[in-house]
Amino acid sequence: MDANAAKLIGAGLAMIGAIGAGAGIGIVASGAVQAMGRNPDATGTIQTNMILGIAFAEAVAIYCLVVALLILFVF
Amino acid sequence: MTETPKPKVWGRWVVLAAVVLGLFIFTGFFGIGLSLKPVQPHVVLPAEPLFSIGSFQVTNTLTALALADLLIILIAVGVTSGVKKGSLILGGIIGAIEWIIEMLHGMTEGTAGKWTKQIFPWFVTIFLIVLIANWTEMLPGVETVGILHQSEEGHYQVESWGPVSSIVLPEEGAHAEETHAAGYEFFAFLRPVSTDINFTLALAIVAVIMIQYFGIKSQGGRYFGKFWNTGTVFSKPIFGVIDFAVGLLEVVSEISKIISFAFRLFGNIFAGSVLLFVIGSLVPVFAQSIFYLLEFFVGAIQAFVFGLLAMTFMAQATQGHGGEHHEEAHA
Fold first, then answer.
1. Which of B136, B212, B238, B302 has its CA 20 to 30 A from that of B266?
2. Nearest-CA distance A56 → chain B (Å)
3. What pTM, to 2 d.p., does this model score?
């Protein structure tokens, strides 16, 4: 196989990891919205914790992205 | 029954004229354009050196950091003079800064308690520098105006009009080797500093060191008990060993904090700038503005997340663990 083609396929495969982060962020947001609906007074704290949770979930997708970018532009 | 005449709005006509002009220039829309087709960008991961002072290389991310610092200093001076005037209602950018500071302060108080006074400055410093650094990406001319170097590794073809040169598409039919030999490299004067892994890594290391500092300052030597937990090894043999292993895992968690801090910011902003390049090369007119809005949002969120995580970890370090282990995600 052409090395360039293998690179492109590898970068695409690396981004599969984003699936998990997408599902995770969806779960976090749904939980947060439900909590806000039940207790609107606690919106501030819930929002802060939601963003924290999203940041943790998103980190995995960002690792995938960095790996894909490294494959594409460095190696 | 006299209707008040609407004030004439000229802004939209200017925008429309700019869009039509862009269509002419970049796409040859009605066949009369200059056909300056946008070029597929060649993405470079490390920052490009501009010039060097002695053995110290000044890269284009460093100049962007200087620009961001300058902006922050200007904002600080403006806000200080505005506050000193003593009006009760602060307007404009001063009001915006006041809103940000108040929101962040409330958040810190809720999390850090009596350590608010020590931790709050770190939160706001990290937030402001990362925010302004991310938003320099949106300034016109950043990453698009720069120097062209002729070199072996060059990827661009260049056409000159008097003193100004621009990158053009390679001539059709030209041999690959020929275009390769006559290639140009492009070094932008400014490139957002968050797209440089050195900046994000440095910021992450500073943040994690300060987390340890706050832990030691609040708990003294007991803070290290989190990492080297031999207290229960002999009293409860099996769970004691597990506790010890968990303590060693805490060391790994501190190191992974550095990595996740650094790569989260770098990945988001670098991917954003690549996205802007690619969209700009696909649809040269109008489409990019939507993604500018997205980048505006991402830049703010990432700055907020970086500061918020640093603040939360610092507050956690001051609270100690008192027998119970934090099952925080190690991301």
1. B212
2. 6
3. 0.79
Residues B192, B45, B47, B150: is their CA dihedral positive or negative? negative
pLDDT at A29 (0 to 100): 94
The residue of chain A nearest to residue B104, with distances taken between CA atoms, is A48
pLDDT in tens, B180-191: 445 677 778 888
Q: Is B309 on the interface with A (CB under 8 A)?
A: yes
Other CB atoms closer than 10 Å to residue B179's CB: what's the count?
15
b/e string for B199-237 if b means 16 or more Cβ within 10 A?
Answer: bbbebbebbbebbbebbeebbeeebeebeebeeeeeeee
Any idea what the Cα angle at residue B58 is, between residues B53 and B59, rounded to 5°? 160
Burial of B309 (0-12, 13-18, 19+ CB in 10 A): buried
Residue that the structure tokens 């506050």 belong to? B83
Under DSSP, the state recorded for B266 is H
State the average pLDDT over residues B217-240. Answer: 78
Instruction: Measure the CA–CA gap between B70 and B65, rounded to whole angstroms.
Output: 8
